[in-house]
Amino acid sequence: MSVRRLIVLGLALAGATAPAFMTEFQLIQMNYIGMGALIALGLVMLTGVAGVMSFGQQVFAGIAAYATAVLTLQYGASAWTGLIAGLLIVALVSVFLGLITLRLSGHFMPIATLSWGLAIYFVFGNLDVLGKHTGLSNVPPVSIGDIALNRPGLAYYLIWVVLIVLLVACSNLLDSRSGRAIRALRARAAMAESFGVDVAQMKLAVFVLAALLAGLSGWFYAHVMGFVSPTAFNVQAGIDYLFMAVLGGAASVWGALAGAGILTVVKIHLAGWMPAGAGTSGNFEIVVLGLLFLLVLHRAPRGLTPLVAGWLPAGSPARTVPVSPVRPLARRAMPSEATVLEVSGVTKRFGGLVAVNDLSFEVRRGEVTGLIGPNGAGKSTMFNLISGALPRDAGEIRYRGERIDGLSPARIAQRGIARTFQHVNLLGRLSVLENVAMGAHLRGRCGMLASMLRADRDEERRLLAEAMRQIERVGLAQQLHAVAGSLPLGQQRLVEIARALCADPGLLLLDEPAAGLRYGEKQALARLIAELRTEGLSILLVEHDMDFLMGLADRVVVMQFGQLLTTGTPNEVRVNPAVIEAYLGAE
After folding, report:
1. How far apart are CA 555 and CA 572, in angstroms?
2. N or C: fewer beta carbons within 10 Å in the chain?
3. Nearest partner of 495 among 525, 471, 519, judged by Cα
């Protein structure tokens, strides 16, 4: 048995027997840790993984706490009815706030969460039905059958069983198709959208998930503590929960538990020790906590859990290739139209700069079309216009006869267009296998709930098998579990090509795929592109290596200053005086 498994088994055994040797005060602490970890877990998913900073998660706990308290005290409902009602209200409020907040970017987003966090906190303290700042007391405990969980030792088991189940569920989620999409939201949202991820919808889903976890914590708080007051849901509490997530490891699911445990215990003990040591009363623990937090950020910026995990023996790779044959994913029928892509009079301006000016060209079925031009000619801008990353100012772009200009990148990806990027766009901390599997996002159907319940395993095996097949095609089978960000630039470009092929496209946009490759790797890539052409795949290729491009292209489109200079076969373009002048200058 591995060291990691022994540690997990030991912690599980200690947790199961804790009430037998802990004092009541210690059990209350453990309950606080469990409730705090639920909110911190939501923040790990929302802030640490998805990159959405929130200072207002504590109010979702307050909404659920007040909802169940009012229902049980004033209407005689059971705690379980209060749970359902509380989570339903939290879901509705979080959808409303998410639709408003998640449209913002930069520093405006955390300021918005701080704003509605303060607003809802003052609502708690000013409504008569909620007891104003005095709050509501004598909230009844949770009952399971005839057993009332009215003692810390009994409530402990319910809190921690639910917490462990949700920690495992969130870990399952991140280890899935949806999890890859969530991980991409933080810094690679444009890449994720180009492979069919609805970024706005995914962010909202994670926001609601985090709110529901906070709401569950609030429900526990109301029935375990027996009272609800606004103080527990103020801005300081929100900052504490964010500290928990960052301290344990903002991108680590199990870091939420570690952060909640460390911060809760340290804060409680400092509150007792500091006034005595200073010889006067005051909130000195806040000062010490702030200094400790700065120290952790300096020494372990990714949190304590990844730091400790690095000291342990390495486990098996998180991703394994399916060992038994799996049913292959369904393939897309190749386009039957003679002209696959038609660009007509497209113009794109950036202020006074015209990057693309009235450009027209086409890509035919089963051909490699080269798009060349000097630096700054507008080639990558044209790629972004085709893929929907940029809106065009004039003209039309049609794929298989259907206009796609004006569609989002995700909807364009659904129609069968996949791309690579001029600047490598990978999830650097994930493995090659996980990065390539990102390309098959649209070829799976299981959502977040199925992933959390592990009901997506058959589909996930098929997605990984497809990713493995494409990794082998680009010659990176030996790098399957390597961290993508650790590879040389040339190999990272091959990972991008494998990811695009994993989308099973009808049109493939390759933006400088040979940049950074050695001679042998370029020859292998050329053979792959030629093989894809024989399979009926249409390819639009931007490349500065003219020997590489001219040996592959059926036709070449030449751009200069955003305009069409000429088009023709490679031989025609090579001897064209205008092309020679554009590249080498007039004599």
Report:
1. 9
2. C
3. 471
